[in-house]
Amino acid sequence: MSKKLTGFSALTFDCYGTLIDWESGIWDALQPLLHSNNCDRVTRNAALTAFAEIESAQQGETPDMLYPLLLARVHQDLAKRFELSTDKDLDRAFGASIPHWPAFPDTADALRQLKKHFKLVILSNVNRDGFAASNRKLGVSFDAIYTAEDIGSYKPTQRNFDYMLERLAKEHAIGADQILHTAQSLFHDHVPAQKASLSRAWIDRQGLSEGGSWGATALVEDRPDVDFIFLTMGAMADAVRAES
């Protein structure tokens, strides 16, 4: 590839799926529903695939709904999809599960290494309090944080990227040509980032480039071009170290 990682001054990150292992978090948070229904027929892959479809549809229908409330609604719909019984307490607990979602094992070390070379920015589809809870697991202070709660819409809406670019230019003097958008989700991040003419690093946690499963991320039929592909954040940090 012609571009160098160290040619950029800022990394803008998706968080959930890239830095935080949201698939494990979602699956863990679904266990009370499955247990209360004595259900062993719903597999992890089936649950995550259904989650991807239901969550993206709900975000489109209610773009200003806070993410914990949206997750509670998704939980209701997942129960209905799999013909399971739920209640308000189970729905609410699933909606409040974000603080329990784990970071990937390589994330904190990788971010600390990357912080030596770049400004680090978050563009996330959760609410402020949800990200604050996750941030405590990430090991660094971010230079800017923009959430769906701040913006009033969810990615992949182009407005979210416009908001981030306007704020970074105005408040941090960071232009689009200085940014490498770094994310796992093709659907939520790489398609709209490409439309925003941002350079892109794909953290392919699901191994889609090697035939992996889509999991909790909505399907993208036509894979957008990216500038860099890494299977982990650790691999990206190693590549930056090798260039430095």
Question: Can you describe this structure in just a few lines?
Answer:
The protein is of the alpha/beta class and 244 residues long.
Textual characterization of the structure:
The chain is of the alpha/beta class and 244 residues long. It folds into two domains: 5-21 and 103-243, HAD superfamily/HAD-like (Rossmann fold, 3-Layer(aba) Sandwich); 22-100, DNA polymerase, domain 1, CATH 1.10.150.750. 46% of the residues lie in helices and 11% in strands. The chain contains ten helices and six strands; from the N terminus they run βαααααβαβααβαββα. It has a six-stranded parallel beta sheet, sandwiched between helices. The two termini are 17 Å apart.
Describe the SSE topology:
Layout: E1 10-13, H1 22-36, H2 44-61, H3 67-81, H4 88-95, H5 107-115, E2 119-124, H6 128-135, E3 144-147, H7 148-151, H8 158-172, E4 179-183, H9 186-195, E5 199-203, E6 228-230, H10 233-243
Parallel strand pairs: 1-2, 1-4, 2-3, 4-5, 5-6
Shape: globular
Mean pLDDT: 96
How many strands appear in the DSSP assignment? 6
Reading side by side through the largest sheet, how are the strands ordered? 3-2-1-4-5-6
CATH topology of the largest domain: Rossmann fold
Number of helices: 10
Q: What is the chain-wise order of helices and strands? A: EHHHHHEHEHHEHEEH
Residue runs with pLDDT of under 50 for 5 or more positions: none
CATH homologous superfamily (4th level) name of the largest domain: HAD superfamily/HAD-like
Give the radius of gyration: 18 Å
Query: Which percent band covers the strand fraction?
Result: 5-15%
CATH structural architecture of the largest domain: 3-Layer(aba) Sandwich
Q: For the terminal residues, how far apart are their CA atoms?
A: 17 Å
